[in-house]
Write a structure and sequence with these properties.
Oligomer: single chain
Structural class: mainly alpha
Radius of gyration: 19 Å
Shape: globular
Distance between the termini: 29 Å
Amino acid sequence: MHRLTPQQLVTLVLLTVVWGLNWPVMKIGVTGFPPLTFRAASMVLGVPVLALGLVWLKVPFRMPRHLWKELAVLTVTNMLIWHVCIIFAVQQLSSGRTAILGYTMPIFSAVIGALLFGAALAPRAWAGVAAAGVGVLLLLWHEVTGLAGHPNAVALALFAACVWALGTQLLRHSKADVPILTISFWMTAIAAICLTIAAAVFESSRWRMPEAPVAWAVAYNAVLIFGYAHAAWFFLARSLPPVASTLSVMFIPVVGVFSGAIWLGEVLHWQDWAAVALMVIAIASVLLPARAPARATS
């Protein structure tokens, strides 16, 4: 299916750890603190971190005017809707289970790729999608009662995952001839402005100095999520085939579930362990190279 380069492998491992651990971090950040304000502050502080990365790597900031419309669409589908919906969802649901709902994205992405972009998926890729889907169901096994009490939060997380899947496919098929870091910078900057305005309009009456845990969560998101993780994900989404790039990050919600269990005391069951195995199968189905056909012997 696809063999990872060393750069892609290192990026994937770091992304999995950083993004996986962020789910309990976000839960801490929005507990008793305005969610849009938390997200906006993280983005605003993350933009200069990302800008320093562009300067250090000597990546140009210029975005040609004819790409502005496409940039706006990519920003809405990859950043704005995802971050607004998921931050409200994680405020109401457990961090690990929100991660699971959010990472139904690869399933949506595979279907969108096949239906809208004519992506031909091998049987092994569909098997990976199925394994990931079963893993999600297993991880949600003990959350049925809890989720039933938060239908709006569940709908927000699933809607966010679906739109993010569309954004991933749009980014993958983008013909924009600019570095992915440039696109990432402007998407983050635009989203930061939009969320800051939204936070000022809807949450300014609740603004206050964050307590130490919230400030730490903002710093984590600013440096590692918006300064690194999003750019890393956009790099993978553009450099790997669509199914490989999406299913390859399916271990992130597993990290989210187990880090939430250790950090926030969420209870684990046998279904969680079984889901880990299924996520590994899903990843292997799209990343391990297919066996070469045997040569005919004379």
